[in-house]
Design a protein that fits this description.
Strand order of the largest sheet: 2-1-3-4-5
Structural class: alpha/beta
Largest sheet: 5 strands, parallel
Helix content: 40-55%
Number of helices: 7
Number of strands: 5
Shape: globular
Length: about 220
């Protein structure tokens, strides 16, 4: 009998020692994690179209949260309303400066915008290139996807067209994916808040649907 107890005690001790470590909670994923496999970490860098505005009902209504919940991936939001690659927002911050706050362990960085860049194509090109280089230093293992500025009518002004052209060139020169979002919110005026500029909850839901596709394609390519 003593030998049996000894064997049982030894088995329990070994079994306890083999218990896998707990998986740390993702930064920003509302859905429960159903797997012990680590999920890729994503950073969303942008202006108020990413960080939100008074025209939406808060964090849970914005596209980063909606994408995080739908795809079960952690998303860090690094955004400053009114900012762009060239034009600083009220916090005197531009995208190249925001890049310094991207987590070093990011697997993907989505740069979205910016409609705030009232600048020449060359100025946007230089600042976007600087942003990409900065991200390469801060998060060296991260893939980068550039999503251009979104306009709410079918006739965007010249500075938005210049930004689209410049960012397309940067993506091509740096071997990155470029996604045009010019027409994402032109289909329905009900997607824009009362200020006539920012997406409301319905608008963010549309942005989330589009970003879902972008992230899902990246996830499929990164795991294949």
């Amino acid at each position: 009998m003593a030998a049996v107890f000894a064997l049982v005690f030894t088995y329990l001790a070994l079994d306890k020692g083999s218990t896998p470590p707990a998986v740390s909670a993702p930064r920003f994923t509302p859905a429960p994690v159903e797997t012990t496999e680590p999920r890729p970490s994503i950073a969303a860098l942008g202006d108020s179209y990413t960080g939100g505005s008074e025209e939406d009902s808060g964090e849970v209504a914005r596209w980063p949260y909606l994408v995080a919940r739908a795809l079960d991936v952690p998303i860090d939001v690094i955004a400053s309303g009114g900012s762009g690659y060239v034009v600083p927002g009220p916090n005197d911050t531009t995208f190249p400066e925001l890049a310094a706050d991207v987590p070093a362990d990011s697997d993907l960085v989505i740069i979205y915008g910016s409609r705030n860049d009232v600048a020449t194509a060359e100025e946007v090109y230089d600042a976007a290139t600087a942003t990409v280089f900065s991200l390469g230093e801060v998060a060296p293992d991260a893939d980068i996807i550039i999503v251009g500025p979104t306009w709410i009518t079918a006739d965007p002004p010249q500075n938005i067209l210049d930004s689209e052209s410049a960012l397309t060139r940067v993506a091509a020169d740096q071997g990155l994916r470029y996604v045009s979002s010019l027409a994402w919110l032109t289909e329905d005026a009900e997607l824009i808040g009362g200020d006539g500029v920012h997406p409301n909850d319905a608008g963010h839901a549309v942005l989330a649907d589009r970003m879902d596709d972008v992230v899902e394609e990246w996830l499929a390519a990164s795991t294949s």
